[in-house]
From TrEMBL:
Domain of life: Bacteria
Lineage per the UniProt record: Bacteria, Bacillati, Actinomycetota, Actinomycetes, Kitasatosporales
Signal peptide: none
Native source organism of the sequence: Kitasatospora purpeofusca
Name of the featured protein: NAD-dependent epimerase/dehydratase family protein
Residue intervals of the NAD-dependent epimerase/dehydratase domain: 5-208
Amino acid sequence: MSFHVVTGAGPTGTATALLLAGSGERVRLVTRRGTGPEHPGIERIAADAADADALTALAEGALSLVNCAAPPYHRWLTEFPPLAAGLLTAAERTGAGYVMLGNLYGYGPVDGPLTEDLPAAPTSRKGTLRAALWAEALAAHRAGRARVTEVRASDFLGRGATSLFGFTVVPAVLAGEPVGYPADLDAPHSWSHLGDVAATLVAAARNEASWGRAWHVPSTSEASAREVARRLAAAAGAPEPALTAVPATELARLGDEILAEVEEMAYMYDRPLRLDSTRTEEVLGVAATPFEDVLEEIVRGARS
């Protein structure tokens, strides 16, 4: 029976652990407080993933080490480097395949579809950080010290999705309330369903072809923010959404330290953002969840 270590029990970590356990594999789910879903195949462990010694002991014998943990958004620059260092060190010591959950920040502004082979060209502090973390892991892979891969997702969509859209627009639409969103509301935008993120992470952990390169999560939709809001309202039987575009600078004035971090990423929302996942679909065999199913999941979650 395969054995995997998953770090982080947020929506993606939980979905990943449950997907692995549901297929009959053993999972050690590592979080600071030992939280996570109850399942006979999941062992919940309280530990700090930045502690390389502790994580090494937990990952001995594991087939893969899948990281879904991340510091609070406003503390990325100080807390992500030691977390990433602990994970990479544990992977190097144990031989567990290291699967990183990443995002699109490292590409910087791009006109046209995003493919995994685009060079890193970040224009933000957080983008520079993400690119550096991947470069360090890839260097370890190329030096033969570890097997690493990165799965890159766009904005999360689904029940409990931790994204700006999920925090702000989704609850307002379901409540029939007006809401502002810092984006070109009519620009096509790729959305990553949480279940598809988990499926891509698991597929990458299991496939020898995944190591040493990045993979894009297949998108459940490329609908604009306005269209997603409209279709979500229709699925929920809610009123037509009152969604308006607001400058990202307004978020910084609200006094919320997390929302203040959104301003430097505004370029991701003021133009079309299309994620090409052809390679993931063909090599890893992952397909996107139908968009209507994702909308129904969000509505069911809100009602429960």
